[in-house]
Structure formats: C-alpha cells, structure tokens
Amino acid sequence: MKEKIAFRDAQKECIDGQALRKYQLERLKETVGHALRTPFYQHRLNKVGIRSSDDIRSLKDLERIPFTTKDDLRESYPRGLLATDMKKVVRVHTSSGTTGIPTVIYHTQEDLDNWTELVVRSIVACGVTSDDVFQNMMTYGMFTGGLGLHYGAERLGALVIPSGSGNTKRQLQLMKDFRTTVVHATPSYMFHFSSKIGELGFTVEELNLKKAFLGAEPYSENTRKKIEEFFKIDVYNSYGLSEMNGPGVAFECIYKTGMHLWEDAYILEMIDPETKKNLGDDTQGELVLTTLCRQATPLLRYRTRDLTTVVKGNCPCGRTHRRISRIAGRTDDMLIISGVNVFPSQIEQVIMKIPEVGNNYQIYLAKEGALDKLTVKVELYSKLFSGDLQDLERLKRKIQDELRASIVITPMVELHEPGSLPEFELKAKRVVDERIKI
Amino acid sequence: MAKQINIFVDNRAGRIQKIAESMSLANINIRALAIQDRGEFGLVKLIVNKPDKAVLALQEKGFACGIKDVLAVVMEDKPGGLYQLLKTFPEEGVNILDAYGFAAETIKGSVFFIEVKDPAQMTAFLQGKGYKVLTDQEIYEL
Fold first, then answer.
1. Measured between CA atoms, how close is B20 to chain A, in angstroms?
2. Does A391 lie at the interface with B, CB-CB under 8 angstroms?
3. Consecutive H or E run containing B67
4. Does residue A421 contact residue A385 with C-beta atoms inside 8 Å?
5. Does the residue A164 lie in any domain?
6. What number is the average pLDDT over the span A44-66?
7. Is the pLDDT of residue B103 over 70?
8. A394: which chain B residues are within 8 Å (Cβ-Cβ)?
9. Residue environment code for B59-97, b if the CB has 16+ CB neighbours within 10 A, otherwise e
10. Residue among B33, B98, B113, B109 nearest B75 (CA)
C-alpha cells in the first residue's frame, strides 16, 4: 500500500495548464527584465530585438532567445551574468567549468528561499515530514547537493544530521543512534554501505531507515530495486544542476514514475541536440531550462546537456508539473565521478601545464568496490628526466595535487614511458571507462 | 667516479629485454644491472663500459634515462665484508638510497655500488677509511 499523497502547496503543485502558462509568462517577463541588467544578456537579447520585458508577449517569444551554454557562463566569469547589486547577493556557488575556469551562480536571499521551498516541496512529495530524521550524506560546500537538501529538510522541520560524505562507520553509528529515517547520498555510496554494513558490525534491522534520495550520478531502475530490497526502503530519484540552483529542479513523488519538474520555477524545453529544434513530449532530447524565480543569476534557455524524455500522461499523485525520465546520458563528454562532474578537458589542461610530462594522457575509470576510482596515466617527457627516483615521486605528487585543485577529487597518477600511451593524433580514446553501469 | 644509467621503464613484460637488445646492438657491455620497482613503473640501473654511448642508444629507442654518479666500493669477498663497509655510513650520517653489488674474480673481491646524495663527499670519506673507490675506467676494465 502506497503512503498518503502529501503536498507542500497543493494549489501550486496541481495548478491547471492554462493558469500555469499565464504564471510562466508573467515570470518570464520579469526574468527577461532581470537578465537585461547583465552585460551578457543585454547584448544577446538586443541582437534579437528584445530590449525590455515588454517585448515578451507570449511564451512563444521564448524561442526568439538564443540558448545559453556552459561556455557562456565560463566566458562571463566572474560577474558578467550578475543581475543584481552585489550587496543583495548572499551566496555564491561555483562549479567546474570545462577548462578550469569555473561557472558561477549568485543567489540573493530571495533566490535561496525560493530554492529551499522547491526542495521542501520535493521531499514532501516523497512523504517526508517534520517527524523524520534526515541524514545528509552528500558533500557540503560548493557542491550544491549537500546544502540544497540540508536547508529544505531543515525548513520542513525534520531533524537534520549534516554528516556530509565519507566515513562509513561513523555514518552507520549516527543512523543507529539517532534513528535516521531518510538519507541523501549518491547511489554508489549506498551500494558501498550495503557491502560494508556487516563488516562494520551493523545490521539493516537495527537501523530505522525508510527512504533514500539518491542522485548526483546516473543509475538504473535495477539499482534502485537492489538498494530498496537490501535496506527495505523506498528510493527516490532526483534531478538538479548547480546552474539551476542544485537539487530540487525535478523530483519523484511516491509513485516513482519520473521526476516532476517544477514548471512554476523553470520553463522546460526539449531540443534535438543536433538541429536544436524543439521536440514534443515522449521523444528523447536535451533538456533546456529557463529560470523563472531567480534574481541574481537569471538564465534563459540554458542547455543542460542532459538527455531525457518527458513522460506522457498524468501522474496519479495529481501534480500537473510534467515529469522527466531518468537522465539517459549527456550530449557532451562530461564524466560523473563519485557524484562530481569532471570534464576530460580539465584534466588535459592540468597535464599540459606540467613540463615534465608529455602531451599524451589517458583517463581511466574503474570501480573499487562500489566506489569510483579515477586513474590518470601520463607519459614522462624523456628530455627532462634526471634519473632520480625522488624526482619521479615528487612529480606524481605534483600532478595529483594540481589535479585535485582543478577537479576536486584526488586521482591516482601513473607515470608511463614516453610513447607507451595511445597517441593523440590517432584520435585515441582519451577516456577508458570500465565502471559497470549501476 | 662510476657512472650509472637510470632508465625509466613501465612495469610490463619485455622492457628489460628491450634495454638489453639496444645495448647489444650498440655493442655495449653491461657490467651490472639492478631494478628498483615502484608499482606501475621502475628504474633499471645499468653499469656499462660506455655510458654516454649507451644513453644515446637508449634515447634513440625512446627511453627516458639519466646518468648518476654512484660509489663503486671494493670490499673483501668474505663474511662480514659488507657489514664492515656499511658500519661507516652512519658515522657520516649518510643514507643509502639504493645499492647492489657483485663479486669480481679479477680483483679477488666484491664491488658494491651505492647511491648516496653526495657521492664526492662520501668517496673522500671512504678513501680515508682505507677503502678503494673505483673510477669509471677501473670498473670497465674489471
């Protein structure tokens, strides 16, 4: 038997189509008005004849606006997309750019409040209440996954344990001692738990887990089932990206038939990544999102690079916001390693700056237990080799440190003989991903 | 002072054979060889009769290599010989980075190759203790 359908704000969540479109148009006009305050959008929008919010007369006018890409964000670093007075900004989140220059999203207090409200709405849809104990095992800090859910659960009135990621034994102890009912983690971390729980002296029965929010990396329906059966819990999928605040963009409800994308906060479009033409529902395409309630960094028609499908039909929960399916892949070469987004170009940039290594490299991904393991293989540049072993060890550490500074995660670094890795010119596979899809 | 060639190699089958092959083709005689294993890679250490020529031959084959000065100390080929020699190192506070040796018929003794941070200083010290430290020419003539 399913649990009870609950709403944070039934009126907003079950809004009828016509009212939603009217609301979206109002918000879009306002968002365009905000966007026109940034040098970036002023230039972009003026070029297509949009000089004020009054030039947006219907939702159809959205199609006149060019897409915004991650590169646009990077090129506008650090303030080119800031639409408010810096005094009103209360938080900034940056995320990895494709080339080492990060992308930056600013938030006013109102922006954060709106974001938090979307998170509350999302977790209520999964049946979380103020009686729950929520253990947040996602990384805190610049990574939006941790803070986003943290504030949402806190505002709902749940007991929040901000445990962050890592330290499996302590996590289990916290779960047991505080009777944790809901956890938030990456699917591979949950898998890791299932393999370690016995070894660490705990049993599923002595815990009080009921639900898990798993996200930040793709996983299959099969993985959901395995984790649900092992822990005897319900697992809910979620979707978000830091450019669109973070978690709380789209979330499953208790019916688990796709993630409701909150259409009063984002305009959802699906495009063919090649032709860039809009696609109808039920066709897989790239998700394009426009923010509707963000003052500091409004983004218009942002290409998420995520491939998904809009789920047809109505959800039994009564919410009218359309659902998107699990993310099927990416339209760029972004890698998701332990929930962290990494572009091969970031790794390449670091390697190219180190004179002691050659230009060939290989990114090798494998699983170590349930967790991701990244190995970066580089070639020693023969002319700069002194013959000292200590120099080699120092070089490995240097590469490791610089990669960690750029991509946040710490890779294993392997040194190889000059000419031993597949050559650049031969369009060799730079990335070898041997992780089993979960 | 003795010249040792340090060659960077991947830890995979056939690499030492490749080194031996290039030495053979260049008509270079290998007097001693040691391997320092470091996981995915290692250092192959060679004492040869023509170090400069050997380095060129190796570089031509794409190897990353460098020449290091090492101590080549003659010691008695009998029980306790190595112990007597090594006892002197802590006196100077010198740490041995790597070492290997072989017994040489022609000098009725053993030659011990020792890598230290400052081989020149250690040569003078060992000579003061009465040890013979071979020059590169003397090693090749063994």
1. 17
2. no
3. strand B64-76
4. no
5. yes
6. 96
7. yes
8. none
9. beeebbbbebebbbbbbebeeebbeebeebbeeeebeee
10. B109
Q: CATH no. for residue B33?
A: 3.30.2130.10
Residue A222 and residue A193 in one domain: yes
Whether residues B43 and A389 touch (CB distance < 8 A) is answered with: yes
Domain endpoint, select from A283, A316, A332 = A332
Provide the pLDDT confidence category of residue A1 given band limits of 50, 70 and 90: very low
The pLDDT of residue A366 is 95
State the pLDDT confidence band at A188, using cuts at 50, 70 and 90: confident
Can you list the pairs that A283-286 forms with residues at least 24 positions away whose Cβ atoms lie under 8 Å?
A283/A309, A284/A308, A284/A309, A284/A328, A285/A309, A286/A331
Residues A272 and A348 in one domain: no
Residue spans of alpha helices (H) in A101-202: 109-125, 144-156, 168-177, 187-196
Interface touch A417/B59, C-beta < 8 Å: no
pLDDT of residue A427: 53
- Whether residues A416 and B63 touch (CB distance < 8 A) is answered with no
Residue B66: closest C-alpha in chain A: A387
SS3 A249: strand
**B50 and B89 together in one domain:** no
**Phi, psi dihedrals of residue B15, rounded to the nearest 5°:** -75, -40
CATH assignment at residue A392: 3.30.300.30
- Whether residue A190 is found in the same domain as residue A46: yes
Number of domains in chain B: 2
Cβ of residue A386 closer than 8 Å to a chain B Cβ: yes
Residues B83 and B132 in one domain: yes
Per-residue pLDDT for A96 more than 80? no
Return the residue matching tokens 């900034």: A92
Helix (H, G, I), strand (E, B) or coil at A334: coil
Residues B14 and B26 in one domain: yes
Report CB contact under 8 Å: B66, A416: no
Please give the average per-residue pLDDT across A319-336, as a whole number: 92
Taking an 8 Å cut-off on Cβ atoms, the answer to whether A380 and B64 are in contact is yes
Provide the 8-state DSSP code for B128.
Answer: H
Can you give the residue range of the structural domain that contains A115?
10-332
**Contact between B8 and A419 using a beta-carbon 8 Å cutoff:** no
Closest residue of chain A to B9, computed from CA coordinates: A417
Half-sphere exposure of A41 (CA within 13 A, CB side): 26
For chain A, what is the total number of helices (H) and then of strands (E)? Answer: 11, 21
Q: Which residues of B touch A (CB under 8 A)?
A: 5-6, 8-10, 15, 36, 38, 40-41, 43, 59, 62-68, 97-98
3-state SS, residue A211 = strand
Instruction: Indicate whether B76 and B126 sit together in one domain.
Output: yes
